[in-house]
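Because discrete structure vocabularies remain unfamiliar, we reproduce here a specimen of the format, pairing a chain with its fold in token form:
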Amino acid sequence: TVEALYALGLLLHNFPAFRCLIVCPKVVKGEWRDAFKTYLNRDISFANDEVYKQIVIAHYDQLIDRRWEKEVEGKMEKGVYKSAIKRRLLNESFEVVIIDEAHFIKRSTSKRTRVLNSLMTQSFKNCQQIKVGTIRNNPIYSSNKLPFVWFLTGTPMEKPQDIYNFLRSCYGMSFMLFTDFIQFFTTMKKVWTGVK
């Protein structure tokens, strides 16, 4: 978290108008808020606040639509509670998205993965390429789809499946198929390790 805050502080110093969305487990929302106050001296807003500040923190469970069932006059009725916070965030634009405990979204079929993909796709649809630095006097530009997405996790990612969804989240449906990814990854593993 501290490293992400430091990087975000540098980014906001160079691009002061950037907006940031942080998605994390509910139990660490307060830690993120305290860290922003301590290290960057910035106030944040939570996703359920009435007015959003430059930095917004949401937790995974706020973004997921929930199914419900109840008995009414002897009949079972079913429905879905739509997440009002997800709808609200879909109308916002963020240049930076930080996904804390990103191992929560490594399965492509999970509700968390699907909702985060929709948020990132919507948030970045009007983004432009940004010059983010230089190497040997050559400019480095961000992707014009996603300027900055950071996945944070302390959980080891050992299989290709573990990181595939992260890349698919960044590049959208145009990213290579999983079978192509596996073939490339296993080929490169053989090259890196010298295994034939």
Summary: The chain has six helices and nine strands. The CA atoms of residues 55 and 106 lie 25 Å apart. The chain has a mean pLDDT of 78. Helices lie at 2-14, 29-40, 84-90, 111-123, 160-171, 178-193.
